[in-house]
Specification:
This protein has three helices and four strands; from the N terminus they run H-H-E-E-E-E-H. It is mostly helical. The protein is rod-shaped, with a radius of gyration of 51 Å. The chain starts with a helix and ends with a helix.
């Protein structure tokens, strides 16, 4: 800006040195000032237009940034849903004691047992059904099957004894 002032002063000095008539000098300076004011007005208008455009661009940029942030947050949510290491699982369980069906949330199979909300009995959970587990005779699923098998053997044995006794009775009646 100081360079412009220096050039402006130099032009005025050149006019004063080259125009000898004071009226012509005054007229020339006035016209030069009018021309300078016209240029200054044009520069002010261009500056105002440029400032308005820059402000409009900044507002648009803020709106675009806001939209980008909204899209990014949605993408983050979707990404979280897809790649989230959510270890909470919901299981349906049927209580072996009261046959009550209920749902429970578990994390990665960390629980080994769960309490039935109906009968309050503790239900043991087997997370590795393919592995053979040695039954100690106190778990409901194995023990229940064992009782049924023992009962079937007993019933078969009793039926066999009854048939033998009936056969013997028939044989005795024939002998008489």
């Amino acid at each position: 800006m100081s360079d412009i002032k220096g050039k402006y002063k130099k032009i005025l000095e050149d006019l004063e040195n080259n125009i000898k008539d004071p009226e012509d000098l005054l007229y020339t300076k006035e016209k030069f000032m009018e021309l300078t004011l016209i240029f200054m007005d044009i520069i002010d208008r261009l500056t105002a237009l440029t400032d308005a455009r820059i402000k409009e661009i900044e507002e648009r940029q803020e709106e675009i940034n806001s939209r980008i942030n909204n899209v990014q947050s949605m993408v983050d949510e979707i990404e979280g849903d897809i790649y989230e290491d959510d270890n909470d699982y919901e299981f349906e369980i049927i209580c072996p004691y009261c046959n009550y069906e209920f749902t429970t949330d578990m994390e990665d199979g960390e629980k080994d047992e769960v309490k039935c909300p109906n009968c309050n009995n503790i239900i043991e959970l087997d997370w590795n059904p393919e592995e053979e587990i040695a039954c100690e005779g106190d778990c409901a699923h194995c023990h229940g099957e064992q009782v049924a098998e023992d009962e079937a053997k007993y019933t078969n044995s009793e039926n066999k004894k009854k048939k033998e006794e009936e056969q013997e009775d028939n044989n005795e009646d024939e002998d008489m």
